[in-house]
Amino acid sequence: MHILFVCTGNICRSPTAERLSAMLGAERALPDLTTSSAGTRAVIGHAMHAEAATALSALGGDPSGFVARHLTTRIASAADLVLTMTTAHRDSVLELAPRQLRRTFTLGEASFLAAEYEPAGLADLADLRPHLAGQRVDDIPDPMGQDASYFTAVAARIARALPPIIELCRRSVTFPDG
């Protein structure tokens, strides 16, 4: 199972979500969970922003070896679940890969649906989309240009949104008997 996270520059929010999800997946013994990220206007080839890397490290994540990349149709289409930081990012993904509609949500939407409705698996998440009507699900704000405490707050917000999604992934995995 592969989760793709998408933001703008792919140096702050989406790599934070990518690395925290990988950490949570490892903690929950989900060996088939892979995570990656990309940006709609990526700073291609760059490492994580220093403040984002510091905030990630403080949460137990590992920023080492990260390299930003640009979102492409191929990258978006290969994911089992695409989680974006904003509704605008979600729209960008769907412009590139409209067939990913049932698999593409904002991070906030997916977290809300997974926590509130506890779907049995990823396939059920899209069926819950009507429950978003009338709900206020905020985007994850861009910390670029802000101080270190803002980066820390954004990383903490991402970290709070991830556990229901990782639990959904755990439920989606078919474990062999025995």
**Roughly what is the average pLDDT, rounded to an integer?**
95
End-to-end CA span: 21 Å
Number of domains: 1
How much strand content do the residues show?
5-15%
**Order of helical and strand elements:** EHEHHEHEHHH
Q: How is the main sheet built?
A: 4 strands, parallel
Morphology = globular
C-alpha-based Rg, rounded: 15 Å
Number of strands: 4
Structural class: alpha/beta
What's the architecture in CATH terms?
3-Layer(aba) Sandwich
Number of helices: 7
Short description:
The active site is at 7 (nucleophile), 13 (nucleophile). Residues 1-168 form the Phosphotyrosine protein phosphatase I domain. The protein is α/β, with parallel strands linked by helices and 178 residues long.
Write the layout of secondary structure elements.
Elements (H helix, E strand, L loop, with lengths): L1 E6 L5 H15 L6 E6 L10 H9 L14 H5 L3 E4 L2 H10 L7 E3 H11 L4 H4 L22 H25 L6
Parallel strand pairs: 1-2, 1-3, 3-4
GO molecular function: protein tyrosine phosphatase activity
InterPro entries: LMW_PTPase, Ptyr_pPase, Ptyr_pPase_sf, Tyr_phospatase_low_mol_wt
Pfam family, one: LMWPc
